[in-house]
Amino acid sequence: MSEPQGSEGTTQRLPVLEKAAGTGGEYEAPPAPADDSGGAGSSGRFWSARRVPAGIVALLLLVVAGAFLYDIAAVRAGRDALAWRRDLARQLAERPLDDIWVLVGAGVAAALGLWLIVLAATPGLRAVLPMRRPHADVRAGLHREAAAMVLRDRAMEVAGVQSVRVRMRRTRADVRAVSHFREQDGVRADLEATLAEAVRGLGLSRPPTLSVHVVRPGRKG
Fold it and tell me: Which parts of the chain sit beneath pLDDT 70?
């Protein structure tokens, strides 16, 4: 499962042209309520199976190991070693360590090894947000797109909101709203309260920080 850099949800009642100028505010989401069910509490991120990188590495190892084993078995059976292995052994024996091709090969091998270490040490699946665990044997996650859709729908219920755009990240939710007939400060305060309640209702183990921005619609024409 691939992971996008961010998920967006967009809904608008009327087509408008948004201006860059506006007011914005930062709001720290209240801490999630304590789990009174006696469960395991929060959980970490979901780990990716890494099927594609694992398959590529396994295929390469299979091809290289198979070629060497075949050649070694052929030599043991009294045949001459294959030309590519004789040439490889000669090149490794004759080329100095500061040769450009030796350095390039070592750099490629080091980069490949570093890539595999990073894949093995990081969870992946950034698009799935872990949820609280009321029971130790149950794990659940919520996709960023679904979380962004919930926040967008709740924001559209606030009076004075004309359109909303939500960008959901792993630790932050950026909300940009367009208001038309109410004061921006009042719309922003209602949005902050409504979205804080919506974030708590998502049941995430690490509720994201809310960043709410309210602007006026641009003039048409």
Answer: 1-43, 219-221
